[in-house]
Amino acid sequence: MKDEKINGIKKGANVVAGQVIGHVGKMDGIDESMLHLELYSGKETGPLTNRNNQPYNRRGDLINPTDILEKSQLKEEVNNEINN
After folding, report:
1. Rounded to two decimals, what is the model's pTM?
2. Phi, psi of 73 (to 5 degrees)
3. Rounded to 5 degrees, what are φ and ψ at 9?
4. Fewest CB within 10 A of the end CB: N or C in the chain?
5. For the chain, how are helix, strand and coil distributed in percent, rounded to 5?
6. CB-facing half-sphere around the CA of 1: CA atoms within 13 A
């Protein structure tokens, strides 16, 4: 997907709260919907899959998005409390 647009988002673009960055879907044999999200710091270059980086084989600058998403959710909850 090098240099391709996904949902109108180009590589290196800034995104804002509420902007669609992906779509939830289902995999065969799984009842729950899911969104696969990977974030990279950009400190490394090359393909995202690196067979030498066990156990996940992903590039070394992969970022765990959990903290970012949790902080974003908390900020949204605080803003909702302030505005209501």
Report:
1. 0.51
2. -65, -45
3. -100, 125
4. C
5. 20, 10, 65
6. 8
Asked if residue 9 lies in contact with residue 15, where contact means CB atoms within 8 angstroms, the answer is: yes
Structure tokens at 52: 């030498």
pLDDT at 63: 87
Place of tokens 């800034």: 14
Task: Using DSSP, state whether 40 is helix, strand or coil.
Answer: strand
pLDDT digits (tens, 9 = 90+) for 27-78: 788 888 877 778 888 898 888 887 787 777 888 888 888 888 888 877 778 8
Q: Is the dihedral of CA 42, 48, 51, 56 positive or negative?
A: positive
Q: Which two tokens stand for residue 17?
A: 């709260």
Amino acid 4: pLDDT:
47
Task: Check residue 36 and give its pLDDT.
Answer: 76
Element (H, E) at 63: strand 62-63
